[in-house]
Write a structure and sequence with these properties.
Helices cover 76% and strands 0% of the residues. The protein has 141 residues and is mainly α. It starts with a helix and ends with a helix.
Length: 141
Amino acid sequence: ALLSGPVGQWSDRIGPRFPIASGSLVVAVAFAGLALLAYAGIHSFWWGVFPLMALMGLGMALVVSPLSTAVMTAVEDKDTGAASGINNAVSRIGGLIAVAAMGSLAAWVYAAALNSGAASGIPGFGEPPRAGLAPDLDACL
């Protein structure tokens, strides 16, 4: 939000193509960095995740304002309301798909880790009993 005004003014001077392309590249670099954190052995939020999330925010600031302006100026004045609504709807649908895809990916990665011999059970609660409740029930009877 802090950079939307300056980026919008910059985009008005040079056109939206460069800010959108460079912002998309910055976001892609941030995502790649987040994906590679564990392989790099960086497990700190402040030294690993936070800088990359800040970089992603910078990239999004470069993309969103010029993209919205490009959409709104590409239609006639009488269609700006519909263009704004469609732009917002597509943005929300994209967010919904991304959340669903990330949830599915997280479930798949977690299941693959369990099948590869990683510790089973709920993380943080230790190993579940191997025989289940059968010996305890027999002892009670």
